[in-house]
From TrEMBL:
Family per similarity comment: Belongs to the BPG-independent phosphoglycerate mutase family.
Protein name: phosphoglycerate mutase (2,3-diphosphoglycerate-independent)
Predominant cellular place of this UniProt entry's protein: cytoplasm
Cofactor(s) needed: Mn(2+)
Lineage, top ranks: Eukaryota, Viridiplantae, Streptophyta, Embryophyta, Tracheophyta
Gene3D superfamilies reported in the protein's UniProt record: Alkaline Phosphatase, subunit A, BPG-independent phosphoglycerate mutase, domain B
Keyword Isomerase listed: yes
NCBIfam families listed in its UniProt record: pgm_bpd_ind
All residue ranges annotated as the BPG-independent PGAM N-terminal domain in the record: 101-322
Enzyme Commission number(s): 5.4.2.12
Involved pathway(s): Carbohydrate degradation; glycolysis; pyruvate from D-glyceraldehyde 3-phosphate: step 3/5
Amino acid sequence: MGSSGFNWKLADHPKLPKGKTVGLIVLDGWGEANPDQYNCIHVAETPVMDSFKKGAPERWRLVRAHGTAVGLPTEDDMGNSEVGHNALGAGRIFAQGAKLVDSALETGKLYEGEGFKYIKESFPTNTLHLIGLLSDGGVHSRLDQLLLLVKGASERGAKRIRVHILTDGRDVLDGSSVGFAETLENYLAELREKGVDAQIASGGGRMYVTMDRYENDWGVVKRGWDAQVLGEAPHKFRNAVEAIKTLRQEPNTSDQYLPPFVIVDENGKPVGPIVDGDAVVTFNFRADRMVMIAKALEYADFDKFDRVRFPKIRYAGMLQYDGELKLPSKYLVEPPEIDRTSGEYLTYNGVRTFACSETVKFGHVTFFWNGNRSGYFNPQMEEYVEIPSDSGITFNVQPKMKAVEIAEKARDAILSKKFEQVRVNLPNSDMVGHTGDIDATVVACKAADEAVKIIIDAIEQVGGIYVVTADHGNAEDMVKRNKKGQPLLDKNGNIQILTSHTLQPVPIAIGGPGLAPGVQFRKDVPNGGLANVAATVMNLHGFEAPADYETTLIEVVDN
């Protein structure tokens, strides 16, 4: 990046002053839905967020945070924190994850790229291993893409294919893993009839095997490594469907937390350990839960757990999962080129920036906000602070998380008057919402609201402006529903808990003593989404947004 020859100068806004402190708060997983007992935001005491909604109607509205509004293929695609923060920071909509993979598979471009050519070198003599989430959830991966990739590889010389599955139950219904495994098994059986030795080799639940993130618990990755690479697991089965059905009977087991298993042949030998010369693809398109396994597969120098053996493999990700670490170095699908983010523009235009969250969302308010780019644009102008998240517990145990600590860091940054933008992410409603614990999620929402108050109070003191929004929904609907919107019950008559994100819009509120009179939300951007927030924030800093940014949500009317 950098300023080489590019004109970063933004035009001054004709009506809005420069130099105000803008407090920019992203509530993670905070959507807007009908009030009922499964809407934890409604149930929780949230006087601050309520006051925005009940206050000046021209200073509160909803924006879209899912589907095409954040670059995902369809309106059935839930938003997530990565694409949400990309849109919030970039001010434009870029094709994301699933969409990039869809088009690379559809055009065949995937098979012409460097990444595929690299793994293909293993096909004549060795095995192709595919590791990833077996699900049609569309958040981390999609089953249809896996099937297309298996098909494409088998048509291009892969004679021996092993799939290492991770069961979902988080972005999709618990129990749906059985059906996904049957679909995959049936397809691999068809390939075997055509002479391709294709089978499932291992498995486990996504929250217990392989798919940890942010170095929270390397034990999760080790359990995956042992099953996938070493062919060792406490449970051995002849086929995956039987494995899942059997293991689901155990107490405290769900798709998310299925223990690791390996598939063995009639002699009890694992059918698919990873050995020297093999090719490995991690087929998830979403990065956050692939970075750790990518490090284990790629780094010769690795000390997070004892790998026992480190096979010489050809490894590629579906995408590159970390642009700064260049990890993995080989990947099948090119990333969206996100350039000229709002953060970079504002830095070049003299806006000093402070960003803060706790570990689980720190990357969102920095790396993803800045267009999948690590580090500072200008260390003289920016300060990023990460507060360590609780580790070794599930977030419903401590639902207040680090909300107060984040808010206090933001408050101090605001009161120091060193910064014109103070940006935070409050993770509570998302991280606790994912646990499915309704009571804890209510506590989480209250904690986030209290944190907002600490930040808003500081903005009041310095005569600043606040912008409060969210990246996608989660805590506002904690139950699965039928087409009529009624809660779904399981066979015992209990409600089916919804642990995933949602398709709901999210609020955005503006205010504060520094907000110029006459600033209000426009009525002519009814379908505004997260990508419209960047231009809005630029305006509040006293600048016009670049011409190709999604339009601002605000106007200044002369009283």
